[in-house]
Amino acid sequence: MHTLKERALHPFRRRSFDSFTAVSDVSFHVGRGEFFGIVGRNGSGKSTLLKLMAGIYRANAGDVWVNGRVSTFIELGVGFNPDLAARDNVLLNAIMLGLGPAEARERYERVIEFAELRDFEDLKLKNYSSGMNVRLAFSVMVQVDADILLIDEVLAVGDAAFQQKCFDVFNDLRDQGRTILFVTHDMASVRRFCHRAMLIEGGEVQMIGEPSEVGAAYVDLNFEGGVEGVEGGTRQGDGTADISECWWEDAAGEPQTVLRQGDPYTFHARVRFNREAEDPAIAVLFENEAHQPLIATSSEWADEQTGHFGPGDEVRFSVSLEMAFAPGRIFASPWVVYRGGGRVMDRRPRMSSVVVSGAHVSGGLVDLAHEVRLETAGGVLTGSPHA
């Protein structure tokens, strides 16, 4: 029982509670002008940590030292009054965040223009969509002159164009030397903005370091228990062959369900023949979650004559490659056809899936090793390899 009402109604009920430690022994330092990322799975303590630094929660042990004016980007719009129009809410929130009344009125025009809500400024906020509310709140927040910004998952607001405006704002704030602590699940944003990052799990710090390294550790943590294969479309074929299983192995020959970008792996498929087959072709297609093909290959490309197989014979089909697929889930669809690519013996759409983890996200379907060069009449300015 936690309230006076509960105690009055049930005076003899046993009082008990469970203890939960949100953060424990977390210690780190963020320098002036640093963009510092905080990442972790749901329930790891990220938001609680940010609220402790903002003074929303009080720590029962330890200290939080802050040198500068703080602005919190946590639960945007929580202080809005739904029965007031945008102008009244902007002025009230700006004043509560530290601006004087004259400053708040002067910056109102910039706020409403940035939020792209000019046509709705006289509308009460209870008639706004959730996206409109968040955009208005974000626009108020960025007008506050703070030395330290505490940001909790606020970049995914609005449509793609508005998100890009948010990215531009944070680029400007970083260039101005503002100190920013940024909580997010988006590893691309961590790599894009942060100077350093911290991984937290179970309320404890797991590592602090380069954003790319922390991002890779975060992905590994999410899939450390492996992932289940996903059976896909309808099986096809005349039954001459049966693809009984398929799997991935690392360089040591160990089965893997999470593949690291840049490491070598081999895909295997085991095929058992139920009837006579002469020079069958075995192939596989790898595709991503959006059904976009990444690569397809076939035994026909290696040797047109694969041999004669009878009932009960088995063969293992393998494809070895350095993992260059973009991070995310990939699916394998193997098949066996008669010589020359005719009738299908067995085809297993999306028979299995694995997850590709990696620190680099280029935006493409694959991330091939390559070299980037920038040349002028005076010579090569840069020439760094990318892997």
Question: What is the strand content?
Answer: 25-35%
Question: Mean pLDDT, nearest integer?
Answer: 83
The CATH topology name of the largest domain reads Rossmann fold
Question: Would you tell me the structural class of the helices and strands?
Answer: alpha/beta
CATH superfamily of the largest domain: P-loop containing nucleotide triphosphate hydrolases
CATH class of the largest domain equals Alpha Beta
The appropriate CATH architecture of the largest domain is: 3-Layer(aba) Sandwich
User: Could you give the distance between the termini?
Assistant: 57 Å
What is the count of helical runs? 8
What's the shape?
Answer: elongated
Helical percentage: 10-25%
Order of helices and strands: HEHEHHHEHEHEEHEEEEEEEEEEEEEE
Side by side, the strands of the main sheet go 2-3-4-1-5-6
Main sheet summary: 6 strands, mixed
Evaluate the radius of gyration: 28 Å
How many domains make up the 3D coordinates?
A: 2
User: Which stretches are poorly predicted, pLDDT < 50 over at least 5 residues?
Assistant: 226-231
The total count of strands amounts to: 20
What does this structure look like?
By secondary structure, the chain is an alpha/beta fold. It folds into two domains: 195 residues, Rossmann fold (3-Layer(aba) Sandwich); 117 residues, abc- transporter (atp binding component) like domain (Coagulation Factor XIII, Chain A, domain 1), CATH 2.70.50. Helices cover 23% and strands 30% of the residues. It has eight helices and 20 strands. It has a six-stranded mixed beta sheet, sandwiched between helices. A hairpin with a 4-residue loop joins strand 12 and strand 13. Helix 3 crosses helix 5, helix 4 packs across helix 5 and helix 7 runs antiparallel to helix 8. The radius of gyration is 28 Å and the shape is elongated. About 2% of the residues have low confidence.
